Amino acid sequence: MTQGRRWILAARPQGLPARSDFRLQRFTVAEPATGEVAVRVAYHTVAPGVLPKLSGETYTAMVQIGDVIPGNGVGVIEASCHPDLRIGDRVAGELAWATHVVVRPESIQRLEPATFGADVPMESAVGTLGGAGLAAYFGLLRIGQAKPGQTVLVSSASGAVGSVVGQLARIRGCRVIGIAGSAHKCTDLVNSLGFDAAIDYKTHSDLAAAIRAQAPEGVDIYFDNVGGEISDAALLNMKLFGRVVVCGQTSEYQRVVPRGLLGMKQVITRRLTLQGFVVHDFAGEFEAARRELAGWMRAGLLLHRPTIVDGIEHAVDAFVKQFEAGGGGRPLVRVG
Ligand SMILES: NC(=O)c1ccc[n+]([C@@H]2O[C@H](COP(=O)([O-])OP(=O)(O)OC[C@H]3O[C@@H](n4cnc5c(N)ncnc54)[C@H](OP(=O)(O)O)[C@@H]3O)[C@@H](O)[C@H]2O)c1
């Protein structure tokens, strides 16, 4: 009988999460039932987005006290009662903050051996080749229809999605300007990720003017991750018939009363197209997109730089730190 460890919800977080809201539990790994597989988890995320499911602020899949904490991850099948999945297959998808998990195949995807290898590690399936990378890929190339020579502006540029958007824009032959929240992030965008320019929105009282200085002829595609004031400044810099890819609205998520966009008049005068999307709309094309992203990683054009936290015992620390002042980056827990 295999013994595992997993994090369970001990108390509902009140506001921000506390370490005492979680408990690391030892358990005996169950045998998979018909149609299920048992996965040894290699890496799992601790995304801030799981918090509403723990505190009960959402109606979707609320986690109960004593339940294991959900999280995307990658792992290897150790036992299978499903005809299409074999022992040794590597999979990615909805796993858990656990060393082992028994899941149904609908919540995971088998990783194509040809896509992943030495230069494309399997943990990139929950990073650059995961939801964030795929949102960047379909958002920029399909919704944004980026073309060589165009100017792309991306907000939250050093985040998981934004950092890939910028690199893909460069690969596509665009000029790319990032907006991020510190001098350090901006330097990294230009020096490490190949952005043409980066603007620290926290140090500019007139962000619209700062964007204009970097894109005097205007912006063809604005990839919007945050909404709010930053997006109003972006709209004031759009070219005629420009495209706005609405991927996320981070600045709205913690507001009780939505702020929205104040510059909607720009949409008319500049004949803009605004289009939102959900990455799962493209689920049928994920594998092909992963192959292309993996090719760019192999060629050294697309960086995969996860912040690895070693050991499942540190998962809660890594989760909680993201909500604390100065906490940044998206940690990935190597279960060990
Ligand atoms: N449509 C889809 O299918 C899809 C898929 C994946 C993600 N998303 C969305 O895309 C967005 C980006 O995702 P991500 O995972 O890459 O997140 P992320 O950009 O890493 O989000 C965290 C960053 O957001 C910025 N931020 C936080 N609060 C802010 C505020 N009030 N105003 C401006 N910036 C703020 C901070 O960066 P700075 O320090 O630079 O401000 C922070 O580090 C999110 O809104 C997410 O929900 C959508």
Give an overview of the whole structure.
By secondary structure, the protein is an alpha/beta fold. Helix content is 24%, strand content 27%. It has nine helices and 15 strands. The strands form three sheets. Strands 3, 4, 5, 6, 7, 14 and 15 form a seven-stranded mixed sheet that branches. The protein has a six-stranded parallel sheet with strand order 10-9-8-11-12-13, with helices on both faces. The chain has a two-stranded antiparallel ribbon with strand order 1-2. Helix 4 links the parallel strand 9 and strand 10. The mean pLDDT is 94. The chain binds NADP nicotinamide-adenine-dinucleotide phosphate (NAP). The site of NADP nicotinamide-adenine-dinucleotide phosphate has 25 residues, from helix 2 and helix 3.
